[in-house]
Write a structure and sequence with these properties.
This protein is an alpha/beta fold and about 300 residues long. The protein is built from 13 helices and 9 strands. The protein has a 7-stranded mixed beta sheet. The protein has a two-stranded parallel ribbon with strand order 8-9.
C-alpha cells in the first residue's frame, strides 16, 4: 500500500477516474454523497455496469449539496440538473445498503467486468470534492492505495464481507432516489425566501438584546426621536441596527402608517452619534420632507436632535 497525498497529481480522482471504464464496476463506502463529486465523475460513472454504495443510516448526514468549498460549484446553478442525473444513475445502476452506524473511513474498490478488483483505496476520505482531492482537505487525512493484485484482492474481499454483513433493504435505494427527486422539485418563491431568511438569521435566536445592540454610550436613548418611538418601533430599530452591523444592509418593510420614517430617523441618529456619515437618497418630491428634520424650523419637533445627514 502507498500513501496518497490527495494533492497535485496524486489525488484520489487521478487514481479512480482512469479505472471507471465501460463494463467495469465500483464499490464505495462513504459518509457523504456529494452531488458536486458526482458531477466531476458523471460521464464515467454512467458508463459503468454497476455500483454498490454503503452509506450512513440517515440521509441528513450525506451532505448532498456539498460543503463550503463547493460554493463556486453551487453558483453555477446546475443543482437541479445534477440531482436529476444522479437520481437516474442510482435508479439504473446502483445497489444501496445502509451502515448500522457512522462510517469511520472511506473505501473504493474498482473492479473489471469479471468482478476482479483492479484498484482499491482506503482511508480518511469520502465521496466529496475534498475527498476526491478537487478542493482543499485536512492535511492530516491518511489515504492509502493498493499497489499489488494481492492487496486489491484483500481489500475487495474486505468490502464483500462488509456488504454481506449489512441487511438488504429495498427501501434504502428508494429513499435516496426520493430525496434527490425532492431536491429537484420546483419551489415556490415564498418558500425560497423563507428558507433564505431562516439560514441567515437562525443563529440570532428569537429575541434581540436591546442593551447589546444599542450601545448606551451613544446616548440614543436620550434623543427626541427615540423617546417618541413606540415599543414595536424600537424593536424594529434595534433589529435594523443589528442587521446593518452584521450584514451591511437592511430593508424596513412595515405597512403604511407604522412609522418607518421615524424608525429610519432613529437609525440615522444612532449612526450620527457614532460619528458615522449618513446620506439619505430619496425621490425628488420627498426631498423637502427629509430636509425638514435638519432645519431649525418650528414644524421640526425633532430640532433638538440636530440631525446632520445629507439628503439628495
Amino acid at each position: 500500500m502507498r500513501i496518497v497525498s490527495n494533492t497535485g497529481t496524486d489525488r484520489v480522482i487521478d487514481i479512480v477516474q482512469p479505472m471507471l471504464r465501460t463494463g467495469h464496476r465500483i464499490d464505495l463506502a462513504s459518509e457523504t454523497l456529494s452531488l458536486h463529486a458526482f458531477g466531476e465523475l458523471r460521464e464515467e460513472l454512467t458508463r459503468m455496469t454497476g455500483a454498490r454504495l454503503v452509506l450512513p443510516p440517515n440521509n441528513t448526514e450525506l451532505d448532498l449539496l456539498g460543503a463550503a468549498a463547493d460554493r463556486t460549484a453551487r453558483n453555477r446553478l446546475q443543482g437541479r440538473w445534477l440531482v436529476a442525473r444522479c437520481a437516474a444513475w442510482i435508479e439504473k445502476t446502483v445497489e444501496v445498503r445502509r451502515a448500522n452506524g457512522p462510517i469511520p473511513q472511506g473505501a473504493i474498490v474498482l473492479r473489471n467486468g469479471d468482478g476482479r478488483a483492479q484498484q482499491a483505496l482506503l482511508g480518511s476520505f469520502s465521496f466529496s470534492t475534498d475527498g476526491l482531492g478537487l478542493a482543499p482537505g485536512n492535511p492530516l487525512n491518511l489515504i492509502q492505495a493498493s499497489e499489488t493484485p494481492e492487496e486489491c484482492d484483500r481489500l475487495g474481499e474486505w468490502f464483500d464481507a462488509q456488504w454481506s454483513a449489512l441487511a438488504a433493504d429495498p427501501d434504502a435505494k428508494a429513499n435516496i432516489v426520493e430525496l434527490l427527486r425532492s431536491l429537484a422539485a420546483h419551489r415556490d418563491p415564498l418558500s425560497v425566501y423563507a428558507l433564505i431568511l431562516h439560514h441567515l438569521f437562525r443563529a440570532q435566536g428569537d429575541q434581540l438584546d436591546e442593551d447589546q445592540v444599542i450601545r448606551s454610550a451613544t446616548g440614543i436613548r436620550d434623543t427626541e426621536v427615540w423617546k417618541r418611538l413606540f415599543k414595536f418601533q424600537r424593536d424594529g430599530v434595534v433589529g435594523a441596527i443589528d442587521k446593518l452591523d452584521r450584514f451591511g444592509g437592511c430593508i424596513i418593510a412595515d405597512s403604511v402608517g407604522l412609522g418607518k420614517t421615524f424608525e429610519a430617523l432613529a437609525i440615522m441618529k444612532y449612526h450620527e452619534l457614532r460619528n458615522d456619515r449618513v446620506l439619505v437618497l430619496c425621490p425628488k418630491r420627498l426631498r423637502d420632507n427629509w430636509s425638514l428634520y435638519r432645519a431649525n424650523d418650528r414644524r421640526n419637533f425633532l430640532a433638538g436632535d440636530r440631525f446632520n445627514y445629507v439628503s439628495g
